[in-house]
Amino acid sequence: MNLLQKLRRKFLLEPAGFGRPIPPEVLDQEYRSGAWAHFHELPELPRQSVVVGYVSQLYPTPAILDIGCGSGRLAQLFQPHPCRRYLGVDVSAEGIRRARALGLARPEFQEGNFETWRPAESFDVIMFIECIGYARDPGALVADFIPRLAPGGMFVISHFRFGHWAAHWQRVQRHLQPFVETTVANAQGQTWDIKLLRPPA
């Protein structure tokens, strides 16, 4: 990326809500270095528990698509709850390797880039947990997955407040309407917005 492209991204695209993609090889190295190990630690548990609680309350046996599943932490937390299917997808081969190494009974994990990968079937719940900020266009991304939402289904998006997070939400909400919203903060002062959303009627 040349200087002009960097300036355009910093001063035009990012303030407008476009995300900052991370190359898979960078993510792989970050997993190996332990940079994402905190997803399995207690400070992350409050927002993760909200996601699991919402889904298990609304759907007795859902089919769940976990986009950006990383090393499988949410799939691990869903283990006590019945799921008809749980498919986790992530662009990082190392993240998927670690998710599979958890040895969970039901979830399936698959390598795929959410910019291009699309499922063949429909799901009751499609989750984007801490990943929409890495999409080229968060709004276009979620719009592309709407046809894969089963009747009566919902999107669950959790997004950490960093960078241009509010602009990311604006792009998403051009295509999806939130019907439940909550904010979670931990003792370290980190804050997440968690929203349940559906396409407009």
Describe this protein's structure.
The chain has a single domain, classed as Rossmann fold (3-Layer(aba) Sandwich). With 201 residues, it is α/β, with parallel strands linked by helices. The model has no long low-confidence stretch (mean pLDDT 95). The chain has a seven-stranded mixed beta sheet, with helices on one face. The protein is built from seven helices and seven strands; from the N terminus they run αααβαβαββαβαββ.
- CATH topology group: Rossmann fold
Pairing-aware structural class of the strands and helices? alpha/beta
Quickly count the domains. 1
* Shape-level CATH architecture: 3-Layer(aba) Sandwich
CATH H-level name... which superfamily?
Vaccinia Virus protein VP39
Poorly predicted regions: none
The proportion of strand residues reads 25-35%
Q: Mean pLDDT, nearest integer?
A: 95
Note the run of SSEs as H and E. Answer: HHHEHEHEEHEHEE
Q: Give the fraction of residues assigned to helices.
A: 25-40%
Separation of the first and last Cα atoms: 41 Å
Largest sheet: 7 strands, mixed
The top level CATH class name: Alpha Beta
Spatial ordering of strands, largest sheet: 3-2-1-4-5-7-6
Task: Specify the overall morphology.
Answer: globular
- What is the number of beta strands? 7
Keyword list:
alpha/beta; seven-stranded mixed beta sheet; 25% strand; 201 residues; Rossmann fold
Sum this structure up briefly.
The chain has 7 helices and 7 strands, in the order αααβαβαββαβαββ. It is of the alpha/beta class.
